[in-house]
């Protein structure tokens, strides 16, 4: 089967690796020279602006049987619609269905109209005065977000990055005046207190197959401080839950995802693809923070590392509306990202990295390349975004974390940074204690 993977990051690298494992002849469309993807592929299209028409036409020329779409920007541009118009099945939502991520106002209004479980109070404002009035009268801290896509880095939270109503209003003004993410509007959402977690699902219409839960670490620095980033790493547990997340709480989050799939069907915008639910577990149960219309990055590394089912069969079933049960290996996983120093604020752009393949192999870990480029001299240069993800598996989170740390020793370079505290015993104990205190 000829399979196209669209995107050039670590998420797409593992998607491609699993596709090849399951029998794909791989083709890739990307805007960076990712050595992992290039090493797996039969042919590649370098497309700097990731134009959906150019990629779809190239896929048609190559007689692609199935397309797997990685990044949200490609989904938002309507690449799935273009591919479908050329009779190429694609695993990913249409432009209309991807609004669940692309347009936060649409998502919140949908959740309100269909009474999703786990809603948060919210307000969409188009003027600074309206935002100030809501913030002063609401009486609670809020998360402040642009409407559209910002790569996971456009959110600021009162009591975290924002320390007064004036600071919050100033950020609202910045979002509205600059039309951040393409909209002159801002979303103000009730700040929920608890532990964030991710629940992803394969969806085809109203058929929902959930994946193991994971917990991302968006803060740039150890101790969960610093700028909000696209994600510094994540972990999952062998039983699909998390140390602080019970089966009933998992099921409550899944109920929200099922309600969302049903709602999308009801508005004649059936969802086919991956739905990523970001939740925060509070003393009253899970609350829906936001949706992504694709695999999370880093959480794709957690779930695809333990996918037993044939990824090509699952993806084709989604595209054709015939999704069947999916099997996962009962293993824990830990992913830690290697990033340039200063990532999240003022990242370096002059770093390099190399991987000792012998040492990596002996560690049992895997490396997935992200926003890097393979140069003509076969050296790997970094950009200002994340560089590579190191992933370990084990019977427990503790053992998986040790594998990941051993794998990190196989990667060397200049000006690189890792959050080594992710998935450590101390970090997880802190999260468990936090939820125990909230519940009591």
Automatic annotation (TrEMBL):
<keyword id="KW-0436">Ligase</keyword>
<dbReference type="InterPro" id="IPR020561">
    <property type="entry name" value="PRibGlycinamid_synth_ATP-grasp"/>
</dbReference>
<dbReference type="GO" id="GO:0005524">
    <property type="term" value="F:ATP binding"/>
</dbReference>
<comment type="similarity">
    <text>Belongs to the GARS family.</text>
</comment>
<dbReference type="GO" id="GO:0004637">
    <property type="term" value="F:phosphoribosylamine-glycine ligase activity"/>
</dbReference>
<dbReference type="Pfam" id="PF02844">
    <property type="entry name" value="GARS_N"/>
</dbReference>
<dbReference type="InterPro" id="IPR016185">
    <property type="entry name" value="PreATP-grasp_dom_sf"/>
</dbReference>
<dbReference type="InterPro" id="IPR011761">
    <property type="entry name" value="ATP-grasp"/>
</dbReference>
<comment type="pathway">
    <text>Purine metabolism; IMP biosynthesis via de novo pathway; N(1)-(5-phospho-D-ribosyl)glycinamide from 5-phospho-alpha-D-ribose 1-diphosphate: step 2/2.</text>
</comment>
<dbReference type="GO" id="GO:0046872">
    <property type="term" value="F:metal ion binding"/>
</dbReference>
<dbReference type="InterPro" id="IPR020559">
    <property type="entry name" value="PRibGlycinamide_synth_CS"/>
</dbReference>
<dbReference type="InterPro" id="IPR000115">
    <property type="entry name" value="PRibGlycinamide_synth"/>
</dbReference>
<dbReference type="InterPro" id="IPR020562">
    <property type="entry name" value="PRibGlycinamide_synth_N"/>
</dbReference>
<dbReference type="InterPro" id="IPR037123">
    <property type="entry name" value="PRibGlycinamide_synth_C_sf"/>
</dbReference>
<dbReference type="Pfam" id="PF01071">
    <property type="entry name" value="GARS_A"/>
</dbReference>
<dbReference type="GO" id="GO:0009113">
    <property type="term" value="P:purine nucleobase biosynthetic process"/>
</dbReference>
<dbReference type="InterPro" id="IPR020560">
    <property type="entry name" value="PRibGlycinamide_synth_C-dom"/>
</dbReference>
<keyword id="KW-0067">ATP-binding</keyword>
<dbReference type="InterPro" id="IPR013815">
    <property type="entry name" value="ATP_grasp_subdomain_1"/>
</dbReference>
<dbReference type="GO" id="GO:0006189">
    <property type="term" value="P:'de novo' IMP biosynthetic process"/>
</dbReference>
<feature type="domain" description="ATP-grasp">
    <location>
        <begin position="108"/>
        <end position="320"/>
    </location>
</feature>
<protein>
    <recommendedName>
        <fullName>phosphoribosylamine--glycine ligase</fullName>
        <ecNumber>6.3.4.13</ecNumber>
    </recommendedName>
</protein>
<dbReference type="InterPro" id="IPR011054">
    <property type="entry name" value="Rudment_hybrid_motif"/>
</dbReference>
<keyword id="KW-0547">Nucleotide-binding</keyword>
<keyword id="KW-0658">Purine biosynthesis</keyword>
<dbReference type="Pfam" id="PF02843">
    <property type="entry name" value="GARS_C"/>
</dbReference>
């Amino acid at each position: 089967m000829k399979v196209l993977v669209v995107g050039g990051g670590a998420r797409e690298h593992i998607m491609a690796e699993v596709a090849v494992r399951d029998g794909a002849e791989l083709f890739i469309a990307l805007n960076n020279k990712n050595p992992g993807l290039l090493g797996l592929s039969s042919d590649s299209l370098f497309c700097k602006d990731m134009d959906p028409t150019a990629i779809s036409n190239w896929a048609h020329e190559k007689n692609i049987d199935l397309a797997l779409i990685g990044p949200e920007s490609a989904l938002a541009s309507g690449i799935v619609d273009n591919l479908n118009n050329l009779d190429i099945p694609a695993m990913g939502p249409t432009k209309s269905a991807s609004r669940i991520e692309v347009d936060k106002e649409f998502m919140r209004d949908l959740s309100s109209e269909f009474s999703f479980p786990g809603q948060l109070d919210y307000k969409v404002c188009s003027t600074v005065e309206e935002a100030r009035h809501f913030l002063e009268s609401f009486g609670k801290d809020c998360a402040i977000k642009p409407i559209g896509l910002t790569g996971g880095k456009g959110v600021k939270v009162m009591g975290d990055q924002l320390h007064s109503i004036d600071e919050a209003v100033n950020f609202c003004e910045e979002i509205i005046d600059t039309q951040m993410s393409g909209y002159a509007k801002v979303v103000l959402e009730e700040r929920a207190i608890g532990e964030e977690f991710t629940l992803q699902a394969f969806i085809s219409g109203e058929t929902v197959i959930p994946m193991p839960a994971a917990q991302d670490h968006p803060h740039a620095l150890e101790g969960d401080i610093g700028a909000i980033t696209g994600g510094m790493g994540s972990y999952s547990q062998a039983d699909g839950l998390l140390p602080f997340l019970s089966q009933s709480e998992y099921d409550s989050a899944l109920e929200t995802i099922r309600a969302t799939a049903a709602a999308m069907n009801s508005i004649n915008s059936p969802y086919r693809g991956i739905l990523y639910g970001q939740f925060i577990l509070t003393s009253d149960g899970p609350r829906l923070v936001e949706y992504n219309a694709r695999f999370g990055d880093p959480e794709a590394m957690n779930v695809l590392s333990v996918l037993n089912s044939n990824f090509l069969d699952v993806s084709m079933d989604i595209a054709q509306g015939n999704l069947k049960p999916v099997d996962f290996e009962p293993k824990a996983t830990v992913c830690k990202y290697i990033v340039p120093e200063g990532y999240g604020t003022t990242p370096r752009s002059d770093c390099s990295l190399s991987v000792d393949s012998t040492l990596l192999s002996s560690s049992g870990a895997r490396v997935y390349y992200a926003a890097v480029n393979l140069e003509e001299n076969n050296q790997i240069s970094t950009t200002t975004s994340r560089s590579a993800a190191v992933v370990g598996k084990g019977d427990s989170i503790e053992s998986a974390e040790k594998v990941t740390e051993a794998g990190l020793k196989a990667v060397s370079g200049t000006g690189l940074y890792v959050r080594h505290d992710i998935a450590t015993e101390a970090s997880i104990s802190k999260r468990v204690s936090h939820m125990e205190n909230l519940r009591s």
